[in-house]
Amino acid sequence: MRFVNLDALTYAGNLENVAGLTDQPNYSFELGDITDSVLVERLFDLYKFDAVVHFAAESHVDRSITDPTTFVRTNVDGTIVLLQAARNNWKAGQGLFHHVSTDEVFGTLGPTGLFTLNSPYAPRSPYAASKASADHLVRSFGATYGLPYLITNTSNNYGPYQFPEKLIPLVLNNARQRIPIPVYGKGDNVRDWLFVEDHCAALEIVLFQGSIGSTYLIGGSQESSNLGLVKALLDVYDEKTGQASGHSQSLISFVQDRAGHDFRYAIDSSETQKELGWSPQHSLIEGLKKTVDWYMKHSSWLSNILDDSYRTYYKSQYDNR
Ligand code: TYD
Prior knowledge:
Elements: E1 3-7, E2 27-31, H1 37-47, E3 51-54, H2 61-66, H3 68-89, E4 96-102, H4 126-145, E5 149-154, E6 156-158, H5 167-177, E7 181-184, E8 190-195, H6 196-209, E9 214-218, E10 223-225, H7 226-240, E11 252-255, H8 270-276, H9 284-297, H10 299-305, H11 308-319
Parallel strand pairs: 1-2, 3-4, 4-5, 5-9, 6-8, 7-11
Antiparallel strand pairs: 8-10
Helix pairs in contact: 1-3, 3-4, 5-7, 7-9
Thymidine-5'-diphosphate is lined by residues 60-61, 156, 166-167, 170, 182-184, 189, 191, 226, 258.
């Protein structure tokens, strides 16, 4: 099996993240943007893809609030470019288009209940709306053109290589630099945390065993309030860095809440578990420990990725090949 990784290397991307794959004979990296239809058509022609797993997205809600247009461009325009290329290059009923999506398309929950396959679409941030649009486009290509597709809607991911704008790596980065850790509002919003390796395992099972035209919900079943999560994470960090328990909690700083902040996400993945035999293998605390270990071991990665010149250097390494 051959893998082609198409990545635009935007601010959150970094070739160093896939450095371990470069030497694999069945792996190719292509620098480019999914909104570039000429490029995408050329890649379909070149590699004769059997399947597309579409992970490429702008994904940070706060950025979508300040710059919604970029989200529509990548997440909606980019998805239609990939879908059109699939339609143009695959005969009806051939190929497989797997759209990797989010539980945020379902909006926000109150203190109880879970998102299920029957939850109505009710996105509330520009990010969530752009991913909801992409989900609808994928289903429409299935119904209209017979495109074989799969959709996965997944809860909050965390783990190695996550860009330090998302809550968990941001906390670790700020703790390392001993700078304030911003917690929005009172920190009582709730998220369902999924360790990235559990997500990847689910995606692989869905891709190879999922039934065409289906949607699968994937969650960690590990809910925490943001404040509870930040405190638990800092406890792990303090323990692993030999600090007294509670040492880093003084860095917590309550800041103005996010506009339209969704109160709670929680997802019922029991159908996926029953049908495909997948289940998350990491409790939140186990996942946090692994994550802290990784970021401590890769502290230079963390400083480098925040440095523009470093990313430009890595991008130029590719351009100069
Ligand atoms: P985030 O990692 O941005 O994911 P999402 O918004 O997709 O859930 O944020 C997770 C939660 O943490 C969310 O409720 C917003 C909150 N948050 C903070 O309190 N402080 C921060 O600095 C960030 C980035 C997020």
